[in-house]
Amino acid sequence: MKKEKRNNQSDVIFHYTLQEKDMPEDERIYEDKLVELFRRQIINLLDVVELSYKGNPVNVDGFSFLSERGETYRLYRKKET
Hints:
Number of helices: 1
Strand order of the largest sheet: 1-2
């Protein structure tokens, strides 16, 4: 853990090592480890919470990074038909 100070505010920075063995190959959708980290975290959250908009449940099937709003990543594999 590292503390960084900018504009008289202190931030705590965490670093995580993303290892290949953390996730079986058949469970990955994307090669990008950061995308997979967030994808798995969102899926884990959706196992225990329900997202809503104005009190109505919302079905979520993907996400975008705020820095890359034009790119949407799927949470789940496309189903074979």
